[in-house]
Amino acid sequence: MAANLTADQYQAIHKFLEDKAGIRLGKGKEYLVSSRLGRLLDKDGMSDYGQLVEKLGSFSGRTVQAAVIDAMTTNETFWFRDPTHFRILAEEGLANHQGGVFRVWSAASSSGQEAYNISMVLGDARRSGRGAPGSRVEIVGTDISPTMLALARSARYCGISAGRGLNDEQRKRYFKEDGDCLEVLPEFRTGVSFREFNLTKPIDVLGRFDAIFCRNVLIYFSADLKRQIIERMARALNPGGFLFLGSTESLSGHQELFEMVNVSGGIGYRRR
Ligand SMILES: C[S@@+](CC[C@H](N)C(=O)[O-])C[C@H]1O[C@@H](n2cnc3c(N)ncnc32)[C@H](O)[C@@H]1O
User: What percent of the chain clears pLDDT 70, i.e. is strictly above it?
Assistant: First the structure.
């Protein structure tokens, strides 16, 4: 029988997620918690949410804590999401790069589609003569979810959602097909790496970037945390570097840090 989730237990899980990952569940998401964490109870031999909540507050519960965060993240993504961002990156970002390493951060990379799309678009742009001669591209994908990072590193996507967002030409151009799986071709994996990183933490450890994609994740955070992350990202961007947010997210304020660039309806924010 499914375990019962009390209001206090829901509040405790809610607080844990916001404290550790910045994620705010909002009101009335009990069904989401039960459906995603119910499986964890069975898997880790816990009989009820009381035991799980106890582990959230104890040092010995670290494995369960990581599993709760992993299970509660929303990882939806697909190929070439908001494609105008990739166009701005190639036409306004790479085209004006002066040389050396062109570094791009996919800051909530989920299963990796965004990072590989950046590699594909920049690879094509460089082949058509954009970017400084002798320069090189480095793409860092980060996420809080180890499960998503493992899938991203595999660069292999299987099942009915594997090709979501791709047209036939893109399927042929960027992937090897293997049954119902798609594998990113080695040339588009070169220069792409993934690491675990929690966006609530200081980002200096990741170095500086020429562009940051932080799409469809800030919506889960409080206004204050969102402001802090945007300010940290502004500091991590080289002058003239771009920040891209999800199409339903906006950069309210921060005009002193960024100017808005609008190309074919797609918006990017250029570091002043
Ligand atoms: C909806 S996906 C967005 C994927 C991709 N950026 C896109 O737009 O298609 C949101 C991702 O943010 C990650 N995430 C949530 N909270 C995070 C945090 N505090 N630090 C790092 N990543 C986080 C989730 O694990 C999830 O993979």
Answer: 100
Phi first, then psi: what are they for 217, rounded to 5°?
-130, -35
Atom of ligand 1 nearest to the CA of 23: 16
Strand order in the sheet with 181-184: 156-158, 181-184, 175-178
Concerning whether 81 is annotated as a catalytic residue, the answer is no
Q: Per the residue annotation, which of 70, 103, 126, 143 is the catalytic one?
A: 143
Atom of ligand 1 nearest to the CA of 200: 19
Q: Which residues line ligand 1 (CB under 6 A)?
A: 21-23, 73-77, 81, 108, 110, 114, 143-145, 148, 198-200, 215-217, 220, 246
Note whether 5 and 46 are within 8 A (CB). no
Which atom of ligand 1 is found nearest the CA of 145?
Answer: 25
Q: How far apart are CA 25 and CA 45, in angstroms?
A: 25
Count of other CB atoms within 10 angstroms of residue 9? 20
pLDDT tens track for 42-74 = 888 899 999 999 999 998 899 999 999 999 999
Specify the pLDDT at position 235: 97
Enumerate residues 6+ apart whose C-beta is below 8 A from 176.
Answer: 182, 183, 185
Task: List 91's β-bridge partners, or say none.
Answer: none
Structure tokens at 228: 């802090």
Domains of the chain by start residue, with CATH = 7-72 (1.10.155.10), 83-271 (3.40.50.150)
CB-based contact 241:211 (threshold 8 Å): yes
